[in-house]
Structure formats: C-alpha cells, structure tokens
Specification:
This protein has a four-stranded antiparallel beta sheet with strand order 2-1-10-12. It has a four-stranded mixed beta sheet with strand order 6-7-5-8, with helices on one face. A four-stranded mixed beta sheet has the order 23-22-25-24. The longest helix has 29 residues. About 45% of the residues lie in helices and about 20% in strands. Helix 15 crosses helix 18 and helix 19 packs antiparallel against helix 20. The protein folds into five domains: about 40 residues, no CATH class; about 120 residues, no CATH class; about 180 residues, Isoleucyl-tRNA Synthetase, domain 2 (Alpha-Beta Complex), CATH 3.90.740; about 180 residues, Isoleucyl-tRNA Synthetase, Domain 1, CATH 1.10.730; about 130 residues, Helix Hairpins (Orthogonal Bundle), CATH 1.10.287. The protein is built from 25 helices and 25 strands. With about 775 residues, the protein is of the alpha+beta class.
C-alpha cells in the first residue's frame, strides 16, 4: 500500500509493523476455530514468539550447537529470488514445466569440440568443469583434457564422474558447482571452484561478465543469441522437466552455494525411525509409515537459517575475528566472549532468523513450559494423538518426533492421524487465483457450521484428497433440516410425557423392537468406526439410521399410534424420547450446534458435550424384529416400485395378495397389514397359498413370498409393455457398463474404496430393477 519494502523501513520498524498486524489479525484464526465449534481450553493459547516459547527455542539451539548438531557452513541451498531467503528441501515444490534442451558446443583446447545439452544456458557462466561417465566409450578419451567455456573462455578440466547419465542429452555434463547439487558434490570431490553468478534478486552478478545486471531469464535469451552468432548453438529441442518452486510465492528457486546454518539430521533421524519400528508411534492410515521411513532414511541436513526479519533471531554472536558464541542472550554471549578473549570485545548478533519449523518442532513440550520441569509437562507429555495433513508430515511431524526424542527422551505422541487435503470438486487445490476457495465463514452464513463439519466428516475417507463442493454442503444442510424436523416432530409428540417415566416394563411393538435394535447396532457401529478413525463410516451410519430408518420408516409407522390414546401411544413416546436422546449424543461430535439446541429443548440440564457418549447395548439387538420389519419394508418398497414402473395412478388403491411361504406371509399380514395398506396405498392385503392371479396382474418378490397386484382396468398393459421394453434396454445398457467397470482389475485396484462400493451398489440396484422389469413383461 505504501510502495515501500522492508528494507526501506529498517529491521526495527518492520518488526514493529508485523507485531501490530499480528495483534490486529492474529485473533481471526482463533475466532474461526471457535466458529467451527472446536472445544479447546482457550486460556492456553500460545504464540510461537511468546517469551516462554522463545526461551525454549534458544535453549534447544544452544544445546544442539554445543553438541555439534548445529553448524554453520557453505552448502548447496535453495534460494527464492522473490522472497530473498533460503528454503529447506521440503519447502520446494517440484512442478513439471515445458522448457527447452539447448545443445551447446564447447571447444576443446587441442582442437575440435564436445556438445553438451543443458536446460539452463545462463548457468554456464558458472561452469568450472566438464564431466563424462568413465564407462562411456564415446567420451572416455576426453578425461584429463581441457575444454573452453564459450563466451567467457574459461579453461574447464574434463573429469570422470559416475553421476553422469550417458542417456541424457549427449552424455556429457557441464559442471556448475555453484548452482547444481550434483555438480556441487562432483566439484568438491574434484577440487573444482564454485562460482556464484547470481545476486539475491535473481539478476546476474559480476561473475557473469557482459551479462552482469540482467535478470536470469533475460540473460538466458542473450546467451542463446550470442551462442547462435558464434556458431556454438547446435540445436534446441522442446523438453518437459521438473523445476523447483517456492512453496510460498511460486517463484522458480535457484540452487546456489551459500553460508547458512544447518542441523545434522542423521543422528536425530535414527532414533525417530527406531521409535516407529518399535511401535511407539502408529500412523493412520498405515501407508504413511513407509513414506515416513523413506524420507528419514534419505534425509539431508536441514538448512535452518532464513534471510528474513520476522521470527526467532539466531542466538549467535560474532566476535571481531568471527568467533561464534551461541548463548541464551547477549549478556551470556558477552560472558563467553570475555572468557575467550580475556577482555570485553564488540559483538554483533547474526542477522538471520530461524526457519519457522524449528520452533514448531519443539511445540509438544515448549508449550508446556520446557525447559522447566512443570506440572503441565509431566501431565501432558507425551500426548495421545496428533491430527494433521500429509503435506506437513516432514515439515512438522517427523521433526517433532526427532526433537521430542532428543530433548524429552520420549516420543511426543502415540498415534498420528493423517488427514487428506481439501480440494475442490474437480480435485484441484483451492486457491484465490483459481476462484475455487470455499470460505468456512461464508459456509457459516449460508449453510451453518454443522453442515461444514458433517460434510468434511462424511467425506473424510483415508485417501489423499477431500473433494469439497457447495452441492455437498447443500446436501448436509438438507440432512440437518431433516434432523431438526425429526426432532421437532418428536418433541411435539412427547410434550405430555412424564419426565421420570421409563421404558422398562412397557410391551414393545414390532416396530419399537426394530428401531431399538437398529439404534443398538448404530451405537456399536459408530463407536467401532470412531475407534478406528473411520470418521466417514461413523457419519454414514448416523446418516443412514436417521434418514433411512428412523425418519422414513419408524416415524411413518408410529404416527397412527401417536394419534391414538392408550398404552401404545405412551410406549411410542418413550421409545421416541430414548432414541432422540441417544441419537443427539451420537451426532454431537459431528454437529455440535444443532444437537446442543435440540438437547436444551429436550429439557436436559447442562451441555450435551458433557453427557455420556452412548454405550453398547447388545441385549437390545433383536434379529427377529429386524427380520420381520425388514420384510415389511421390502413389501412396501416393492409395491411402490411396481406402482412407479407401471404408471399406476397415485390415488389408486390396490389389492395385494401374498403367496408361497405360509408362515411368513400370514405373520406379515397379521402384524403389518394396517401400516402396509397406509404406506403402499393398498385397499387390502391378504395371504392365499394357492392364489391364481387374474389376467393383468403384476408380480413381485418379497423375501420368500410372491406378491401379486391385480391391475386389470388400472393399467393400459399394451402401452405399458412398450415403455417397459425401452426401460429394460436402458437398464441393460447401464448395467453392462457398470459390470465391465467392476470386472476391470485396474478399476478395483486404483479407484478409492468408496467409489468401488458405490459402483457395486448401483449395479445391485440395476440388477434388481432389471429383474422386476422382466417379471412385468412376462406377466
């Protein structure tokens, strides 16, 4: 806004401005967490630059430095020209980009030339050697000879290096130790100097000769132009390759040699690997264990210095001769310097700050008062569970394990639940530039936070991504409306129910036994899936029970009893109150706001958050009630399907006859005739063992029973059969596609489990519909 950089302000004023910004906007994250319904002890909020945490950071740094695990040295680092700072390896995002492969002729001192392919011609300004693979017969004779660098005419020794890939380009590699990690290692081994050709802003420095001052990409253009003019550019080919980009700003990073601070990682990584191998930490999903091992087993030293002003300043002071003193504060540094020099000397502190992940790696114990042995530290370290995204598995999780083991002698947590990343409905990462960001606070206003919580939980399979769309949020809001309307119906119908009255001693109807059995199974299922961190399966169980069983069936069946007076009504009221009570407690972790409100209307004291989570009640599981009620549901569903497929007028009441299995048929008619007639719009329902259907009767299947619906005079069979044939052709076509997909091993192996399950369910529905259509046509 002011058109000024941090350098224009100066360090002190810049840091002051950032603190002002933090005070103004820092509470927004807390406000959003509260809006989401997070139940935290807000009195324990911590900020990474709080004095207590700053002391922990300085303590950790000094101890690691004194043990030789932190050192300062020249090393190949990743540099972001836009941010003007170093990046650790895992802060670099590698992307495939369309570039070019430039084939450049390097003259040989004794005559002739060798052609070298490169994607970055500008880095040739820093070349100090040429390498060939010693096993490559084409170029083995060049080892020990000298090439001449085009334009700058620097003499370049030709060396042998097994790192050279004979299949890439021409099989000859130009060595730029100052700007490539592989070249850096070859250069160190062969004694080749590392020449830095870049300024911090990505322009060419004085080592670039005539190209000094040009932007790196403009310099590339000018160098290519010059090579063409001198006849040294053999050809240019399109080439797609991986380029590292800054995770903050997206700028292409530059590898370069710089003096930085590093942590030796191998000694810290080994105990962290062993801890997981010994089962002290478990990753969920388990596949992340392999990823964790792969990273730690191939870990490089961690560059922890950043050329920024906001953050924990590196606690090292330099004497007049460059001697370093790591200390908790300047007074301690002066004391160490006085002991070293024998007198007071002028000191200056390192200008860089620490990588923010350095302080974050100490979080599990620094927030509890470490390095002091506080009561909080004794009580809360280690914790039980860490929930985080896979994108910071290395940034944060692995480093917390390493630092926890180093300073506390124990792992910081027992289990790590790795969540997927939230992406849009097309699987793309959300970003402001794409315009596909879903703002939680906007969701709060449109659908409510409960809708967001339930949507994310319902979609939280153990893949790499959550696909989130406004349509899903609308569906969740519809479900919440269903819950609210269900609760309102129950509350209206139990207004006269005495508070202390218990369900014990009341005779339950079949539908009561069924819903109580289904509730018991739902409690068991939800608890089991939550214990397994299958939040989506627990959410699905709640959705299915609430919508498909309680609302669609039990409430519809029990409405008649609620309208009457007598013991049947009272029992139904007690069942409804007990089901609603348990269901609210099961749902509360997913939708805290609506359940808290309904809990209050139910007349409960205190917050539902402190109510006991429902316990398993296996004694209420009633297989007999489930069998008979499911048969009733199948009957009503079959009649409705026949009515829809054959175009039976909505107001027409049909005669229904069951045949075949006498015991099951008579039991179904005896126990559920009234609700079946009402819900399926039947004029009558009876069982006849030797029923002979009249012409024009539709036929269906209900369990082991055969269902007949006489439709003469109700349906125009000639027109209906033509429509059924068309419908059958369509169903067969759709089913053929689904079955081909399910028969494909690649689909079953690669598709997410929920996609395979959904496809299988669709195929089952189509098979059932196909069978019904065939029965109608045959009838």
């Amino acid at each position: 806004k002011e058109g000024r950089t941090r350098h224009d302000l100066g360090r002190e004023e810049f840091v002051k401005r950032v603190w002002q910004w933090k005070e103004k906007y820092g509470s927004e994250i807390i406000d959003q967490l509260k809006a989401l319904g997070a139940s935290c002890d807000w009195s324990r909020t911590r900020f990474t630059l709080d004095e207590g945490l700053s002391r922990a950071v300085r303590t950790a740094f000094v101890r690691l430095y004194e043990e030789g695990l932190i050192y300062r040295g020249d090393y190949m680092i990743n540099w972001c020209p836009r941010c003007g700072t170093t990046l650790s390896d895992i802060e670099v995002e590698h992307r495939e980009v369309d570039g070019h492969l430039y084939y450049v002729r390097y003259p040989l001192e004794e005559g002739g030339h060798v052609t070298i392919a490169t994607t970055r011609p500008e880095t040739m300004l820093g070349d100090t050697g040429v390498a060939v693979n010693p096993d490559d017969d084409r170029y083995r004779h060049l080892i020990g000879k000298t090439a001449i660098l085009p334009i700058l005419e620097r003499r370049l020794p030709v060396v042998a290096a097994e790192e050279v890939d004979p299949e890439f380009g021409t099989g000859v590699l130009k060595i730029t130790p100052g700007h490539d990690p592989v070249d850096f290692e070859i250069g160190r081994r062969e004694g080749l100097p590392a020449i830095n050709i870049l300024n911090g802003d990505g322009t060419i420095n004085e080592n670039g000769g005539p190209f000094a001052g040009l932007d790196r990409y403009r310099a590339r253009e000018e160098i290519v132009k010059r090579l063409k003019e001198e006849g040294l550019l053999e050809k240019v080919e399109p080439y797609r390759h991986s380029v590292g980009h800054c995770y903050r700003c997206g700028t292409a990073v530059e590898p370069l040699v710089s003096t930085q601070w590093f942590v030796k990682m191998k000694p810290l990584a080994e105990p962290a690997i062993q801890a997981v191998k010994e089962g002290k930490i478990r990753f969920i999903p388990e596949r992340w264990t392999k990823v964790y091992f792969e990273w730690l087993e191939n870990i490089r030293d961690w560059c922890i210095s950043r050329q920024l002003w906001w953050g924990h300043r590196i606690p090292v002071w330099y004497g007049p001769d460059g001697e370093m003193f790591a200390a908790m504060d300047e007074a301690e540094a002066r004391a160490k310097a006085r002991a070293y020099y024998g007198r007071d000397v002028e000191l200056h502190q390192d200008e860089d700050v620490l990588d923010t992940w350095f302080s974050s790696s100490l979080w599990p114990f620094s927030v509890m008062g470490w390095p002091e042995e506080t009561e909080d530290l004794k009580r809360f370290y280690p914790t039980s569970l860490l929930i985080t995204g896979f994108d910071i598995l290395f940034f944060w999780v692995a480093r917390m394990v390493m630092m926890g083991l180093k300073f506390m002698g124990e792992v910081p947590f027992r289990e790590v639940y790795i969540t997927p990343l939230i992406v849009d409905e097309r699987g793309q990462k959300m970003s402001k530039s794409r315009g596909n960001v879903i703002d939680p606070m906007e969701v709060k206003e449109k659908q409510g936070m409960d809708a967001l919580r339930f949507t994310l939980s319902h979609a939280s399979s153990k893949g790499r991504a959550w696909r989130l769309s406004w349509d899903q949020l609308d569906e969740a809001r519809n479900f919440l409306n269903k819950v609210w309307n269900m609760a309102r119906f129950v509350l209206q119908n139990i207004e006269d129910l005495p508070e202390g009255l218990s369900l014990a001693g009341h005779e339950l109807a079949w539908e009561d036994r069924w819903i109580m059995s289904r509730l018991a199974r739902t409690v068991e299922k939800v608890r089991m899936e939550l214990d397994r961190y299958n939040f989506h399966l627990a959410a699905d169980a709640l959705y299915h029970f609430t919508w498909d069983e309680l609302c669609d069936w039990y409430l519809e069946v029990v409405k008649v009893r609620l309208a009457d007076e007598g013991e049947g009504r009272r029992t139904a009221q007690l069942v409804l109150r007990e089901v609603l009570d348990a269901l609210l407690r099961l749902m509360h972790p997913y939708m805290p706001f609506i359940t808290e409100e309904i809990w209050r209307h139910l007349g409960k004291e205190g917050t539902i958050a402190l109510a006991e989570f429902p316990r398993p009640t296996p004694e209420r599981v009633d297989p007999e009630a489930e069998r008979l009620f499911d048969l009733f549901r199948e009957l009503v569903t079959e009649v409705r399907a026949v009515r829809a497929e054959l175009g039976v007028p909505a107001k027409a009441e049909l005669e229904a006859v069951l045949s075949s299995d006498r015991e099951e048929g008579e039991e179904l008619v005896r126990e559920f005739s009234a609700p079946a007639r009402r819900l399926a719009r039947l004029s009558s329902l009876r069982y006849e063992e030797d029923y002979r259907p009249p012409a024009g009767a539709a036929k269906g299947v209900v369990g082991s029973l055969t269902l007949y619906l006489p439709l003469s005079g109700v349906v125009d069979w000639e027109a209906t059969r033509a429509r059924l044939r068309r419908a059958l052709e369509k169903v067969e076509g759709e089913l053929e596609k689904l079955e081909a997909r399910l028969a494909n091993p690649d689909f079953r192996r690669r598709a997410p489990g929920e996609v395979v399950a959904k496809t299988e369910a669709e195929a089952r529905q189509l098979r059932a519909r196909k069978a019904r259509l065939i029965r109608h046509l045959e009838g």
